[in-house]
């Protein structure tokens, strides 16, 4: 690679991020085409993917060398000290180049080769099939149909080719509505609830500066409402905070006469009493802030949690100041409103924000997750992300900053979604087939650019990049490792957990340590409950299988032999002395036990790791002056 | 019985509301000497609802029309509402509850009348005498002896009859040292750490006073401690007050060990909150936890403002410091604050949990509480007279023991496989320390317990808890003995609010309870299929 000037630097120090006494490990730093690698004196390796690097900083030269701080998108922060400034400068410059690519084709995914042939690759890409998913929801049916209007991305470039719309909405209506909506993102179906016959639909905001009515858009909304025979009204959910709406009021009233009066009333502050007259559409505002507020909120959160010698008080006031948990609650509350509208009122809901690819994706996907247990399985969660995020054009490459682009486009919208899901898994430990590691792994890969799924900003762009031919899909790799991601407490049959009704009282929202301090080993519990339960579960299954096997062996013997021989044979096969049985059981024990022991050990629990050394510095410190003067006084008085 | 004078109304019709998750209960309400009873009639389930009056922390009455409402706030942080027919009945019942719940007399309290089926009086009281711990120490070292100098509680009224002291120090020296320490609490052995051969001691502050008095026997005692440990051992005195506060204590007769008088010993100051500020912290936290409507910002600011988690962090760090001194520096540690009955015990007991695998077993933990809290003279009756809801001005109340339980809970969260007991055990201890049918937490010291004949006339909590039927609630199904020290992280990101306690009633964690049940099921399945013995009988600590 032309950017790499130095491939190896020795005697580099890796500082402990939270230590106030500059504890460090010494080792060698390597720079490869894709990764930065640090191998310390214990041969422990730290790999950092170039794409994960969010920020590289070279700090002022110190006596021990030149400090280099690397902040990663997966919230890893490493602090190196390179002995020679020239080496540091070279690495710094190389990383600057390597971490920000100008072209999609330079991303890791295009060179990553997991040694699969083309048909395996294709099968991997076909693992999540959205056509199948709509079929699973029961579509098409008498009210909803597949529209071919966007087959060539002619109406909306950021939507997928296949879109479901009300059967009574004709193509001219769709085209007309799309012209009235920002980026052509007209109202389409996101999720269909078969039992309630209600739908979650999504779109973007009506175009500002549009002065006339848009009859087609009006018709499309009516059509969505009519497509739900169970309820004569529907909700339009605007996910933006009301105070930011002022400029938008003027345009919203153009939706039509029906809405006009209601909106004019609201704009004039007259309240909602006239809504009953226009009872087929109800407006709901939920205050989710925009991508810029979210970006700076996370920034503040990380600043707080990353500071050294943090006191409990600073932590909580920082948590409050960052507002991050408030935003997580707002997103969850919006999803709950959506789910309730469908479950309790049988009403269809149309969700939108500004462009309909950030907050709208959050609310639609989280709402579906509450309603449909399928999305809480490992496979279902992949489908949900493919549907509401990837296919509907959440701008992954812009939001994750895959390429060197506008930093104002970067925002942790998807991270926020994962955090909302994590909070649900905390509240309903039995409702999800997957565990926290699954969420963390997905988060890792939206930034890694190792797989093609999250590259690009919409389906059209992905097709142009020929991602399915040139890169691999993440999902088969996650499924292959799914053992790691199973939640041992998952109860798939529980009726109580069919629809989740989370409680969003403030106490329920906590700082997600395992996400934001994923790589700060010393902050985590030292023993994993999940692993141990997982293991117990597996052992139970294995033992039960053994019991069954033995029973069936006994049965076989019974069928074959006469009674006299049988008892002898039976005793032989059951008796522990039986050599065959003994070895088989022993083998199993041997394979299981070491793992168990490894899990039980208290890894990394030592006072040195926990930095009490700071408290205990005084164990080796010289006596303070006050005490020695006291010594003199004490002598005199005695 | 004088109770009858305090009961103004025998019974009334009432409806009981027990929070949003539980259905209301209607029936006949009745006040007895120790209980509030509600009988919904024979068909109903349960057919009787019972509340120990002692567990009522505050009572509020309102009357409207010909009915009244009584709100009972309990010491276990539960809030109950009683809707009662009749204004007179309401007022009478409220007055009766008020009078009966605040009775001061120990020997008329419920534990003296409680006679449950299946338990024998006097059982389990003999479980944890000082002799027993001494035997454990004596197996490892000859440097210590069990002294019965305090047989008649004359040396120190808040110590047990027998204490463990350096072998080379005789009882006369102990008596002199006791006179030099506040409340007579001379330095005694709290824990012997066999792997490093070092010891943890506790005492109260020395009475140096403004003249900086000294006491030769006290100095000898601490010298003997170092001499008994490995040669060249150093000692650290962990003072749980700030250097400033320790200095000020001289004005009132207290003080700290002067460096010159105790060669080999070095003082460290680790201020821990106690007394009224700690009680206020508890009250503010409970207030914040009672508000279900508050915004995220308000909640976080109240959580910050009450400082409870800061106290948790401080207590854990100080205990870690003491433990680290013993395990890594090979030093002897003496812990004291002022009286040596509160934050001192917090530090010594937590340090043992960190270092000693035996204290993390069910039996070992009970022994630890018995030895380091009850027999060591933590004044439970004074500290736990009222909980967080009381309107009366706190005098001696302070949730030191609760703070200890919270710290243990944090340890359990960070080392989920290393404690044999679960959250249920900690909750039970909290409940019983504030109001209990058992005698274990009665009185302020062994001396008082002797005078009241607590050991012979009440049941021990341990015999109640060690019944097989209680085990599923109290034990940790994932426990696996862990021979190592457990060093917790004390960073704010690693500490959490103990929801299971502070939000137990406002916010019942039903789904997680179901999940816990599932964990139990998996764990017991494992035991069954492996054919090993289920461990539901209380196991004694290994000899």
Automatic annotation (TrEMBL), chain A:
Keywords: Coiled coil, Hydrolase, Lipid metabolism. Residues 124-516 form the Myotubularin phosphatase domain. GO terms for molecular function: phosphatidylinositol-3,5-bisphosphate phosphatase activity; phosphatidylinositol-3-phosphate phosphatase activity. InterPro entries: MTMR6_PH-GRAM (IPR035998), Myotubularin (IPR030564), Myotubularin-like_Pase_dom (IPR010569), PH-GRAM_MTMR6-9 (IPR048994), PH-like_dom_sf (IPR011993), Prot-tyrosine_phosphatase-like (IPR029021), Tyr_Pase_AS (IPR016130), Tyr_Pase_cat (IPR003595). Substrate binds at residues 290-291, 353-359. One of its GO terms (cellular component) is nuclear envelope. Residues 533-560 form a coiled coil. The active site is at 353 (phosphocysteine intermediate). One of its GO terms (biological process) is phosphatidylinositol dephosphorylation. PROSITE patterns: PPASE_MYOTUBULARIN (PS51339), TYR_PHOSPHATASE_1 (PS00383). PANTHER family: MYOTUBULARIN-RELATED (PTHR10807), MYOTUBULARIN-RELATED PROTEIN 6 (PTHR10807:SF34). Belongs to the protein-tyrosine phosphatase family. Non-receptor class myotubularin subfamily. This is Myotubularin related protein 6. The gene is MTMR6.
UniProtKB/TrEMBL annotation, chain B:
Residues 523-543 are annotated as: Disordered. One of its GO terms (cellular component) is cytoplasm. Pfam families: Myotub-related. It comes from the Eukaryota. GO terms for biological process: negative regulation of autophagy; phosphatidylinositol dephosphorylation. One of its GO terms (molecular function) is protein phosphatase binding. Transmembrane segments: none annotated. PROSITE patterns: PPASE_MYOTUBULARIN (PS51339). Residues 124-502 form the Myotubularin phosphatase domain. InterPro entries: Myotubularin, Myotubularin-like_Pase_dom, PH-like_dom_sf, Prot-tyrosine_phosphatase-like. Residues 531-543 have a biased composition (Polar residues). Belongs to the protein-tyrosine phosphatase family. Non-receptor class myotubularin subfamily. This is Myotubularin-related protein 9-like isoform X1. It comes from Balaenoptera musculus (Blue whale).
């Amino acid at each position: 690679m032309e950017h790499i000037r130095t491939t190896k630097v020795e005697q580099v120090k890796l500082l402990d991020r939270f230590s106030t006494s500059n504890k460090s490990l010494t080792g060698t730093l390597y720079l490869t085409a894709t990764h930065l690698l640090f191998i310390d004196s214990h041969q422990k390796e730290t790999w950092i993917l170039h794409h994960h690097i969010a920020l590289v900083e070279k700090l002022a030269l110190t006596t021990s060398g030149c400090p280099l701080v690397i902040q990663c998108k997966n919230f890893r922060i490493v602090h190196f000290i390179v002995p020679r400034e020239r080496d540091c400068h070279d690495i710094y410059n190389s990383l600057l180049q390597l971490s920000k690519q100008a072209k999609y084709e330079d991303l890791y995914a295009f060179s990553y080769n997991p040694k699969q042939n083309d048909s395996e690759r294709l099968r991997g890409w076909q693992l999540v099939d959205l056509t199948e998913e709509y079929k699973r929801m029961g579509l098409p049916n008498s009210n909803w149909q597949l529209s071919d209007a966007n087959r060539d991305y002619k109406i909306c470039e950021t939507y997928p080719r296949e879109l479901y719309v009300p059967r009574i909405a004709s193509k001219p209506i769709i085209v007309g509505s799309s012209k009235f909506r920002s980026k052509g993102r007209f109202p389409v179906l996101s999720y269909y609830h078969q039992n309630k016959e209600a739908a979650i639909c999504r779109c973007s905001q009506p175009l500002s500066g549009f002065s006339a009515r848009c009859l087609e858009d009006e018709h499309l909304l009516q059509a969505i409402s009519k497509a739900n025979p169970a309820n004569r009204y529907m909700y339009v959910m605007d996910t933006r905070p009301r105070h930011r709406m002022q400029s938008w009021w003027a345009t919203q009233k153009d939706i039509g006469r029906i809405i006009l009066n209601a909106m004019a009333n609201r704009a004039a502050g007259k309240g909602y009493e006239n809504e009953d007259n226009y009872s087929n559409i109800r407006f709901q505002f939920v205050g989710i802030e925009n991508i810029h507020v979210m970006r700076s909120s996370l920034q503040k959160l990380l600043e707080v949690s990353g500071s050294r010698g943090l006191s409990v008080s600073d932590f909580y006031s920082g948590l409050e100041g960052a507002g991050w948990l408030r935003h997580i609650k707002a997103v969850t509350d919006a999803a709950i409103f959506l789910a309730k509208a469908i479950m309790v009122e049988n009403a269809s809901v149309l969700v939108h924000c500004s462009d309909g690819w950030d907050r709208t994706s959050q609310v639609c996907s989280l709402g579906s997750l509450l309603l449909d247990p399928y999305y809480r399985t490992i496979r279902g969660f992949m489908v949900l992300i493919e549907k509401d995020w990837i296919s509907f054009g959440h701008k992954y490459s812009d939001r994750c900053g895959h390429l060197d682009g506008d930093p104002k486009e970067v925002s942790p919208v998807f991270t926020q979604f994962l955090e909302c899901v994590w909070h649900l898994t905390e509240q309903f430990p039995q409702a999800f087939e997957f565990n926290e590691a699954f969420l963390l792994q997905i988060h890792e890969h939206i930034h890694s650019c190792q797989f093609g799924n999250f590259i690009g900003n919409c389906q059209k762009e992905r097709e142009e990049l020929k991602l399915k031919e040139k890169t691999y899909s993440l999902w088969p790799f996650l499924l292959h490792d799914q053992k790691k991601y199973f939640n041992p407490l998952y109860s798939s049959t529980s009726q109580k957990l069919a629809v989740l009704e989370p409680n969003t009282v403030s106490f329920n929202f906590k700082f997600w340590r395992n996400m934001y301090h994923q790589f700060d080993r010393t902050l985590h519990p030292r023993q994993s409950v999940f692993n141990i339960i997982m293991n117990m579960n597996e052992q139970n299954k294995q033992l039960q299988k053994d019991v069954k096997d033995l029973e069936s062996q006994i049965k076989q013997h019974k069928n074959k032999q006469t009674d006299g021989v049988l008892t002898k044979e039976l005793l032989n096969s059951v008796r522990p002395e039986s050599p065959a049985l003994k070895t088989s059981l022993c083998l199993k024990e041997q394979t299981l036990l070491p793992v168990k022991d490894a899990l039980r050990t208290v890894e990394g629990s030592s006072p040195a790791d926990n930095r009490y050394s700071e408290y205990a510095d005084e164990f080796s410190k010289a006596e303070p002056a006050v005490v020695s003067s006291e010594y003199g006084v004490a002598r005199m008085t005695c | 019985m004088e109770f009858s004078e305090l009961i103004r109304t025998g019974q009334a019709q009432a409806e009981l509301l027990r929070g949003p998750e539980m259905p209301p209960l209607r029936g006949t309400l009745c006040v007895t000497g120790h209980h509030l009873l509600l009988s919904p009639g024979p068909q109903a389930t349960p057919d009787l609802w019972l509340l120990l009056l002692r567990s009522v922390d505050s009572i509020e009455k309102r009357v409207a029309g010909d009915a009244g409402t009584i709100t009972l706030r309990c010491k276990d942080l539960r809030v109950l509402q009683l809707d009662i027919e009749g204004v007179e009945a309401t007022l009478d019942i409220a007055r009766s509850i008020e009078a009966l719940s605040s009775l001061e007399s120990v020997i008329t309290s419920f534990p003296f009348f409680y006679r449950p089926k299946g338990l024998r009086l006097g059982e389990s009281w003999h479980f944890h005498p000082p002799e027993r711990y001494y035997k454990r120490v004596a197996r490892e070292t000859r440097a210590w002896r069990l002294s019965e100098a305090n047989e008649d509680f004359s040396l120190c009224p808040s110590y047990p009859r027998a204490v463990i002291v350096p072998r080379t120090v005789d009882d006369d020296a102990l008596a002199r040292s006791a006179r030099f320490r506040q409340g007579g609490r001379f330095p005694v052995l709290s824990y012997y750490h066999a792997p490093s051969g070092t010891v943890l001691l506790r005492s109260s502050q020395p009475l140096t006073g403004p003249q900086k008095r000294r006491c030769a026997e006290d100095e000898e005692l601490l010298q003997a401690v170092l001499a008994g440990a490995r040669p060249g051992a150093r000692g650290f005195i962990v003072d749980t007050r700030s250097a400033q506060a320790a200095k000020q204590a001289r004005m009132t007769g207290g003080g700290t060990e002067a460096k010159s008088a105790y060669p080999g010993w070095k003082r460290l100051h680790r201020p821990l909150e106690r007394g009224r500020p700690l009680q206020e912290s508890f009250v503010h936290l409970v207030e914040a936890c009672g508000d279900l409507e508050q915004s995220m910002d308000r909640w976080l600011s109240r959580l910050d403002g009450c400082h409870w988690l800061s106290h948790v962090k401080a207590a854990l760090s100080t205990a870690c410091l003491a433990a680290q001194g013993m395990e890594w520096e090979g030093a002897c540690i003496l812990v004291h604050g002022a009286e040596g009955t509160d934050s001192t015990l917090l530090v010594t007991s937590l340090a043992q949990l960190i270092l000693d695998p035996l204290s993390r077993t069910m039996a070992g933990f009970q022994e630890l509480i018995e030895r380091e809290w009850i027999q060591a003279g933590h004044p439970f009756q004074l500290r736990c007279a009222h909980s967080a809801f009381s309107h009366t001005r706190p005098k001696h109340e302070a949730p030191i023991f609760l703070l200890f339980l919270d710290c243990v809970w944090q340890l359990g969260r960070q080392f989920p496989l290393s404690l044999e007991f679960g959250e249920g055990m900690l909750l039970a201890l909290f409940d019983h320390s504030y109001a209990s049918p058992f005698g274990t937490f009665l009185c302020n010291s062994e001396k008082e317990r002797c005078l009241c004949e607590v050991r012979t006339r009440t049941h021990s909590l341990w015999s109640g808890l060690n019944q097989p039927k209680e085990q599923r609630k109290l034990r940790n199904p994932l426990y696996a003995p862990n021979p190592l020290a457990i060093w917790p992280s004390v960073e704010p990101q690693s500490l959490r609010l103990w929801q299971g306690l502070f939000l137990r009633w406002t916010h019942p964690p039903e789904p997680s309870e179901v999940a816990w049940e599932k964990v139990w099921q998996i764990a017991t399945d494992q035991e069954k299929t492996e054919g090993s013995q289920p461990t539901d009988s209380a196991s004694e600590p290994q000899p």
